Automatic annotation (TrEMBL):
Its EC number is 3.1.1.-. GO terms for biological process: cell wall organization. This is Pectin acetylesterase. It is an enzyme of class 3 (hydrolase). Keywords: Cell wall, Cell wall biogenesis/degradation, Hydrolase, Secreted. The keyword Secreted applies. Pfam families: PAE. The keyword Cell wall biogenesis/degradation applies. It comes from Aegilops tauschii subsp. strangulata. InterPro entries: PAE/NOTUM. It is found in: Secreted, Cell wall. The lineage of its organism: Eukaryota, Viridiplantae, Streptophyta, Embryophyta, Tracheophyta.
Amino acid sequence: TLVPGAASTGAVCLDGSPPAYHLHRGSGAGARGWLLQFEGGGWCNDAPSCAARAGTRRGSTRLMSKLEVFSGVLSNDPARNPDFYNWNRVKLRYCDGGSFAGDSEFRNGSSVIYMRGQRIWDAIIADLLTKGLAKAEKVLLSGCSAGGLATFFHCDNLGELLGGVATVKCMSDAGFFLDV
């Protein structure tokens, strides 16, 4: 799902394309549970690496696959995922190169690179709130690698956005990086 209206708020991927996510709706006893998973995929560290990344699926929704396999904790198979198989499961597509945290742009002549991860996060959550996230009882925010770092960045914010009504837990997988 491309996030409607995101571009008008400046919530865009490195190349200016709109952000996206994939949603599998929950059912039965899991209908008010939500699992949001940040996609991982490293970072870009400077203008040249971000410009290169903008021409890949990690920097543009135009280049991402339209269908995603939901496996592991996102699986809808109760034998493989007994805890979350019937929850609303969301894969947040990663296209900003900075763990959903930046809010800047770089202009070089006629080219522009957008580093708008914070705006992307805000736009996706605003859209999901209208699709039932606002009525969640339980929420798990997770991610791996760069997505795991994003989990640290946005855990408290998600709890605040849900007004303390839902139980919000966060699980970062390989998202802690020592500067060594």
